[in-house]
Design goal:
- The strands form 3 sheets. The protein has a 6-stranded antiparallel beta sheet, with no helix packed on it. A 5-stranded antiparallel beta sheet has the order 9-8-11-6-13, with no helix packed on it. It has a two-stranded antiparallel sheet with strand order 3-4.
- Helix content is about 5%, strand content about 40%.
- By secondary structure, the chain is mainly beta.
- It contains 2 helices and 13 strands.
- The longest helix is centred in the first third of the chain and has 6 residues, at about 30-35.
């Protein structure tokens, strides 16, 4: 397993080792001891999945406030995404900055998004499926988000001239300047 810290060191790109043979491959997508040795020492309590039919679908940027704050381990089961994390940690020197990584089913990359970050992604291919583990149960009263196109955050979404496909909820999220840091 290869673990790389991105520009904001708490966010990590994980490349699990694949064991391939004539049948295909086998991979451990989560193994507590190995991940812990790589600095990802998190108890996950729930697995989630999403399916997005169209390229250019943006989901996010979502977070949960304490006591239901979530760390996430995100991977693509089919297709590809640009996966994004935005630092919302109170007092952080990188507050409001984002990091991103392309995750593909073919490559098997995963993104670890720690507590204190908003998370979102944009699908790059049709019929994309994303699976992710979270460290706390979903709590509607602790749910929050920031708008996908906030100029203060300045994410370069790979829309290739298309309008994004958004949920009504995601289209109405506030700007970074309108939320309290985590």
């Amino acid at each position: 397993m290869d673990v790389v810290s991105l520009d904001i060191g708490a966010v990590k790109l994980v490349r699990p080792r694949r064991f391939a043979d004539s049948r295909g491959y086998f991979v451990e997508t989560w193994q507590r001891q190995r991940f812990g040795e790589s600095g990802i020492d998190t108890d996950f309590v729930q697995d989630n999945a999403s399916f997005s039919r169209l390229p250019g679908t943006i989901r996010g940027l979502h977070f949960q406030r304490s006591p239901a704050a979530q760390a996430k381990l995100v991977r693509v089961v089919r297709g590809a995404v640009l996966d994004v994390a935005v630092d919302l940690r109170r007092g952080s020197s990188t507050f409001g900055r984002s990091v991103s990584a392309t995750l593909t089913a073919e490559g098997g990359e995963q993104l670890f998004v720690p507590v204190g970050f908003a998370h979102g992604f944009c699908t790059l291919e049709p019929d994309t499926e994303v699976a992710y583990k979270v460290s706390a149960f979903y709590s509607p009263k602790h749910d929050g988000g920031i708008i996908w196109n906030d100029p203060e955050v300045g994410i370069d979404w790979p829309l290739q001239g298309r309008d994004p496909v958004l949920s009504d909820k995601d289209a109405r999220l506030p700007r970074l300047s309108e939320i309290d840091p985590l």
